[in-house]
Structure formats: C-alpha cells, structure tokens
Amino acid sequence: MTLGSSRWWCPGFSGGTRVGAMSTASPSIRPLRRSAALWGTLWRMALALSTGLIAMLFSYGPALEATDPTAPESLALGGRLVLDVVLGLVAVGLIPLRRRAPLAVLLGIIAVAAVSATATGAAALVLVSLSTRRRWPETAAATVLFVAATVLFDLLLPVRDSVATWQLVLVAAALSSILPITGMYIGGRRELLATLREQADSARREQQAKRDQAQSAERARIAREMHDVLAHRLSLVALHAGVLESRPDLPEAQRAATVTIVRENAHRALSELRDVLGVLHDPDTTGQQRTQPQPTLADLPALFEESRLAGTPAVLQIDDAVAKQLDTLDSATSRHLYRFVQEGLTNARKHAPGQTVVVHLGGAPGTRVTLRLDNTVVPGSPAPGGQPRSGMGLGGLRERARLAGGELSVDTAGPGRFTVAAWLPWTQ
C-alpha cells in the first residue's frame, strides 16, 4: 500500500470477517543413449570377467598348492587353467547377446560354467538378467541348471575339499538363490518406474487436453463478448453515418457533433477489437448470449455485496491520485480489472472462505493502473459446497492480462498470505 492513500469502505462491509503421448527421442539424445548402453555392457562384462577370475583362483588354489611345479602334472593343470580362461572369455563375450536370446545364451554359458570357473561370473550375471523378466518357470529352471553346473564343476576339480555332495548341493542352492531374487527385485523396480512414467505422461496429456478444451471454450466466449461490444459500437457508427448521408441539409454544428460521435465510436470499436481476451470467467453465460452492458469498476459495489453475502467480505482501497481520475480509465481496461477482482474473490471464496479480501487500486494516468488483491490463507480450510479446484482460473487471468498489454502475478505476501497483483496500461 502506498503512503497517502485514502481508504473507501464499500457499504455493508464494516463489520464483516471474512488451484501427451510418449515423445520420440530427438536425434541429439540418441548418441548419448547409445553411449550409455555401450558403457553399461562394458562394465557388466568387466565385472563378470573379474568375478570369474576370482572364482578360478579360489577353485584351483588347493590344486596349485598341492602340485609340484616341476612335476608332469603341472603341465596338465596349466593347460586346464588356460582352457578355463579361454572358455570364460567366450562366456563373457556372449553377454551382449543376452537380450536377443536370453534363454539360449544362459544355457550356453551355464554349460561352459560346468567346466570353467572363469565363466561363473558371466553365468551369474545372465541369470540375474533373465530373472528381471519375472517369469517364474524359466527363472526356476535356469537356477536349477546353474546349481547343477556349480556342483558338477566342483566334483570335477583335481583337488577339492572333503565335503559331502548333499552339503555341496545345499550350499550351492542357498548361494545361487540370491541371483534370481536380485533379478526379480530389479525387474520389479523397472516395471514400477515404467508405470510411474506412463502415469506421469498420461497426467500431462490429460492436463494438456483439459487446457486445450478450456482455451477452445473461452475463445467461444470471447466471440460472444466481442459481438456484444462491437455490435453496439458499429450500430452507432452506421446509424450516424446514415444520418450524414441522408441529411445533407444538417446544420454545421449538428453535422460536426455527428461526425464526432462516429469518430469516437469507431475508435472505441477498434480499441475493443485489439483487446482480444484469452479467457473469460463468467460461468453464468455459458450457452447464452449476453445482452446487458459489460461490467466495469463502477459495478464493484454490487460485486462486493454479492461476495459478502456469499461469506467473503471485501474492502476497496484507492489511491487519491487514482480516485480523482478513475473516470478517465477506458472501458476495456476497467472491464479487465473488474474481471480480475471477480476471479480473485471467487478464488478466495473457494480456498479461503470467511477471510476478508483487501483490493487496492493504484497507478497514474498515461502510465499504468495497478491492482492488488490480498487475503489470509487458512490451511486445510474446506471450501463451502466442496468446490473443486480447477487450477485454470489464475492461468486465465495471466493470459487475459498478457493480451491486454499488462501482466499478472501470484505470490505469498507473507506467512499465511495470498496475493494477486496485476497491472495494465492506463490509456486515455
């Protein structure tokens, strides 16, 4: 509020108290996705190879310690180690094919893992990948084969611990069960994320459809309002122009007055035509054509009285400079400001029932006229009648202000306060 402002209380307000389809990736994003996919494959292959080499060292560790390097048996053991590594590299090389033929690749790698410890990492990784599909029959069968390959490899070792076969099977089954459980969890997370993305996209498409529908409906309302305004202006122009045409004997003073009327109404008609509105907020006119004059700031007392009776009192404050020259404000701007106040009171009635709305008018002729609506917000306070929050009212006000050459903003003036501020050009 500016200093030196005068406050005007509307009658009857002294004792009141008072919100698309899935897009195709652009060409600039595709190389990034390909690079990310390549990196994902490479680090998985490196992890599988590292895990396999560690498993090979642990598996053949007792045999390496028990074999004399100078004995002939060491050559056979060395050849087996080389073969183990080669088969492990083959298994790791099959990892990139796991998405094209997951079952075939897994069966092949498991077969290799039965004689190669280096292939164990690749087999475990592909088993986890297969489990992400969350298909219990194939996952259970693959897990059984993985356990069988693990037990068979341990039985074929040249030197092994003296552990009963049933114990070996039990331990292998317990450790191997971690792999399908991990894959199932990863698959579930992926499905959840995909569902959330689809829901978000669907919500965006629905919101866009609602926005488009609202814009189409409001364009129809614009046409009705512009018809009401222009029909009145142009009918006066046509009437007085007809008088000038049919009465060449008019006195000079009367002719000049008639020409002035024609010029002023033509100018006002052009001004109204430029003020194409984006959105209107008068639901009572849906499907009807208005014949009454459009409301302006002069109709605020009636609007405030209606708001008071609905449970939302309002107070109007006008700066002294504005109050003295408010009659110079053109009718289009005055009507816009009236709509701003109307929507602000409606918004307050929905989301802050019973709270007083302070409406302040300021500005200066030839520059701009400012409007500010401020009210207290009551958290969790229900709106009378359970009115829904469309979320399109304030957006419509912004569009209306923009098309009228001004601007509208919404902000919190402080804790528990809600403020709508707008300005429009003050043309005379």
Automatic annotation (TrEMBL):
SUPFAM superfamilies: ATPase domain of HSP90 chaperone/DNA topoisomerase II/histidine kinase. GO terms for cellular component: membrane. The keyword ATP-binding applies. Residues 193-220 form a coiled coil. One of its GO terms (molecular function) is phosphorelay sensor kinase activity. It is an enzyme of class 2 (transferase). Residues 218-283 form the Signal transduction histidine kinase subgroup 3 dimerisation and phosphoacceptor domain. Keywords: ATP-binding, Coiled coil, Kinase, Membrane, Nucleotide-binding, Phosphoprotein, Transferase, Transmembrane, Transmembrane helix, Two-component regulatory system. InterPro entries: HATPase_C_sf, Sensor_HK_TwoCompSys, Sig_transdc_His_kin_sub3_dim/P. It catalyses: ATP + protein L-histidine = ADP + protein N-phospho-L-histidine. The chain crosses the membrane at residues 42-63, 75-97, 103-128, 140-159, 165-187. Its EC number is 2.7.13.3. The keyword Transmembrane applies. This is histidine kinase. It comes from Cryobacterium lactosi.
